[in-house]
Write a structure and sequence with these properties.
The complex is a heterodimer of chains A (249) and B (263). Chain A is mostly helical. In chain A, 66% of the residues lie in helices and 1% in strands. Chain A starts with 22 loop residues before the first helix and ends in a 6-residue tail after the last helix. Chain B is built from eleven helices and one strand. The relative contact order of chain B is 0.09. The chains are: A mainly alpha (249), B mainly alpha (263). Strand 1 of chain A pairs parallel with strand 1 of chain B, so a sheet runs across the interface. Chain B: Pfam families: DUF4311.
């Protein structure tokens, strides 16, 4: 979250921001121990394989949540949508939310060269697809672990392959000169995470006065120590909440 | 006991899979745009920010480990930070513990994938199995504090950040972003996908003009919005709220397909 602060880099080599571009060209294969551009690890067709493994894990994580109420790879608010569906039986909200993110990121991914796993896989495959399956009455892939893995892998492989197809048609086509707004998305994605710290403090102060004070203190200390202040805000709130429990509703 | 063991074993498999895929994708990001990577722009920025220092990578991931842990305890959601931040940073930290050459460590998908799988096994198992052993008071704080905060982040903070970025990027991007963002909140419940698509479409039109690529793009976006609207019963809801009687066949269609308005 706080990576835009210098605090995120408390190490020696604090490369000042400038994400991406600086590192990308310097990286292209050198050294014998490194897989080269032509090897499997950097080949085009390895991409769907990696998407498939990640998607299989994420989908199985949702299976874990469906059965044991722990394990989704999404944020609290997004998971809450799926939970609401599981309780009320109407999955429309979670399905539309997840599918919307999945679609937007699958279009964006090949054009900017980086697939956003938060929107495409965590929200899309982890929440949107399960919500659609459950809405259609298909519960088996979510109830059985060994069915969840291949289901997730198949979905992931399809997404990866689709991205390669789009990539061929747009970015790699000879007449292309557009970056499709990669720079804009980079800036917005970078700054969005920074907002969580202050939001945590506001939520803590709303919950109770001791928890709010603890959260503020924790965040201030972390900021002073040049660490991301979100972590301090959360730890402070948790610590004070342990000694001064929130009263029940 | 039996249940804890099941969760532990399944978590180990899941952790290995996500660690392997996410870390390989992250390493590939450093070869973009030549190679298709996956991760996120912020992940790339954060990895660059603590470049070459294993301790910086580790402590950055560690801050978010508590974040994820608190959230897992309170709500059962491990948070997106597991794939975005903790696994990549800890894998990077391990990968460069003895060798600081970036090309051989952080930018090397093979090395990152195997270290990432190892990190994932331990991390996901710990997050999923320790959640139940946490005091109730802590669970309540986690849910009451992280719940609202992340809800606000998703709506309205993230939409506004993306929206301002779209508006600042030029008139066409701002226009498409505004229209698709507003429609996306109506149709999907969150404006971010719409704004992202608005930026892609706007920039494509800026750079390429009206070509086959941009026309297909716009067509796909329109189709997505139409399908989402029907799936969520937004059309029916719109008619109700405008106090217009919905035609019987439309109501019947939504009832038959189970796509009636939910909220």
């Amino acid at each position: 979250m706080a990576h835009a602060e210098p605090g995120a880099a408390d190490g020696a080599a604090a490369v000042p921001e400038g994400p991406g571009e600086a590192a990308a060209p310097a990286a292209s294969g050198r050294g014998a121990k490194v897989p080269g551009e032509g090897s499997f690890w950097l080949s085009e067709w390895a991409f769907p394989v990696f998407v498939a493994t990640l998607a299989a894990g994420i989908f199985a994580g949702t299976h874990l949540y469906y059965v044991y109420r722990t394990g989704t790879f999404s944020d609290v608010a997004v998971t809450a949508m799926l939970k609401a569906g599981m309780e009320s039986g109407s999955y429309g909200a979670a399905a539309a939310f997840g599918a919307g993110f999945l679609f937007a990121r699958v279009i964006e991914g090949p054009m900017v060269g980086i697939l956003d796993i938060g929107g495409s896989l965590q929200t899309g495959v982890g929440i949107g697809v399960p919500a659609m399956l459950l809405a259609a009455g298909v519960t088996a892939p979510l109830e059985h672990f060994w069915l969840a893995l291949p289901t997730g892998a198949a979905i992931g492989f399809a997404i990866g392959a689709l991205i390669l197809v789009i990539r061929r048609a747009t970015v790699n086509s000879s007449r292309n000169t557009s970056t499709f707004g990669a720079d804009v998305m980079m800036g917005a994605g970078n700054s969005a995470g920074r907002y969580l710290g202050p939001l945590v403090i506001i939520a803590a102060a709303t919950a109770s006065i001791p928890v709010g004070l603890g959260s503020t203190l924790g965040a201030a200390l972390f900021y002073w120590w040049k660490k991301p202040l979100t972590g301090g805000a959360i730890l402070g709130a948790m610590l004070f909440g342990l000694f001064f429990p929130l009263t029940g509703k | 006991m039996n249940q804890t063991l099941t969760i532990l074993l399944e978590s180990a498999v899941i952790g290995a899979l996500i660690g392997f895929g996410a870390s390989a994708g992250v390493a590939r990001m450093f070869h973009a745009p030549k190679v298709q990577g996956m991760g996120a722009f912020r992940t790339l920025g954060e990895l660059n920010a603590c470049e070459n220092d294993p301790v910086a990578h580790f402590s950055f991931g560690f801050g978010f480990f508590f974040n994820a842990w608190a959230s897992a305890v309170g709500t059962g959601a491990l948070t997106s930070d597991v794939d975005h931040r903790i696994v990549p940073h800890w894998a990077a930290s391990l990968a460069m513990a003895r060798n600081r050459d970036l090309a051989e460590t952080l930018h090397n998908p093979r090395r990152m994938a195997f270290f990432g799988a190892g990190v994932g096994v331990v991390l996901v198992s710990v997050l999923n199995t320790t959640a139940a052993s946490i005091p109730h008071s802590l669970q309540k704080v986690a849910a009451d504090v992280l719940g609202p905060a992340s809800e606000w982040l998703i709506n309205p903070v993230m939409p506004i950040v993306f929206w301002m970025a779209a508006v600042d990027a030029g008139r066409r991007t701002g226009g498409w972003g505004t229209v698709l963002g507003g429609l996306a909140h109506v149709v999907m419940g969150n404006a971010v996908p719409g704004i992202v698509l608005g930026i892609v479409v706007g920039k494509a039109l800026d750079d390429l003009g009206r070509t086959r690529v941009t026309r297909v793009l716009v067509g796909a976006v329109v189709a997505l919005f139409a399908v989402s609207a029907v799936l969520r019963g937004v059309d029916l809801q719109l008619l109700h709220q405008m106090k217009v009687d919905a035609p019987g066949w439309l109501e019947e269609f939504h009832r038959a397909t189970g796509t009636e308005p939910t909220d």
